[in-house]
Amino acid sequence: MPIENIPEIYITDNNKNPDLFVYDFKMPHDVVKSKVNLGMNMFSFLQIGKKQVHFAGTSVAVNKDQSLLLKKGNWLWTELLDTEANYYCKLFFFSENKLTDFLSKYTNNVKPYKEDVPYFVIENDDYLASFINSISSNTFENNSYSDALLVLKFEEIMLYLLNKYGNQFEYYLRSLISKEVSPFKITVESNIHSNLKLEEIAFLCNMSLSTFKRHFTNEYKEPPGKWLQDKRLKKAKELLQGGDLKASDIYLDIGYNNLSNFSVAFKNKFGISPTDISK
């Protein structure tokens, strides 16, 4: 039986590697098993049918009154239990970057939580039913605001489940972060697009500025000032290419104290002024 790599097999544009991705999954009744390599963390919102998911050393069964949050990186078998009906669910994939951004934005617990269970069972209710009906792969295709909408839907479901399950859900979310991702990297990368200075990011990492710089260079093989500037300028370029914002709208958020310094840095990086891009 072949191994299916998801969500890769669902992404039609090979040049895209989305941080958030929705897919409407349908399986006919004559297909009862599949072997899957899960490449991203994933919500599985079951709407028709039943299934049992087998992991190494454990398994879980769910019906249409339940949903699952599955941890990436697991080889798993899925088995359709009700073979008299088709199986239909909506899959919502999210990257580790989006997860760390969310946890940094909305939660205070900075300690990684170790948990070996590769799934979290969600009991559906009226709110979740409404949410599930609001997401579809068709909704987010050929839409200039698709990325922004997906971020809002991701934060909506995460915040609702935090409210519904409290610390239990937060602890599970933290267990989804790869063990090799240190608290230091989580803090740094969740503040890439903030306007915080190096001294302020160092403070959040509980380090002096000099220690922060040494640790950063060892971790990223590049000085923090240059690394952050490159990331922020690339973000600025993306915002300006959207056509809705001007340089004067974004320079503070990108970490510059004045428009002139931002314009000079932008032109040195890309060979064109920010005003020419946003025209």
From TrEMBL:
Query: Which positions are tagged coiled coil?
Result: none
Q: Which PROSITE patterns does UniProt cross-reference here? A: HTH_ARAC_FAMILY_2
**What domain of life does the UniProt record list for this protein's source?**
Bacteria
* The keyword Transcription appears for this protein: yes
Query: By its UniProt entry, which SUPFAM superfamilies does this protein fall under?
Result: Homeodomain-like
Show where the HTH araC/xylS-type domain sits: 182-279
For this UniProt record, the keywords arranged alphabetically read as follows: DNA-binding, Transcription, Transcription regulation
Name the UniProt record assigns to this protein: AraC family transcriptional regulator
> What taxonomic ancestry is recorded?
Bacteria, Pseudomonadati, Bacteroidota, Flavobacteriia, Flavobacteriales
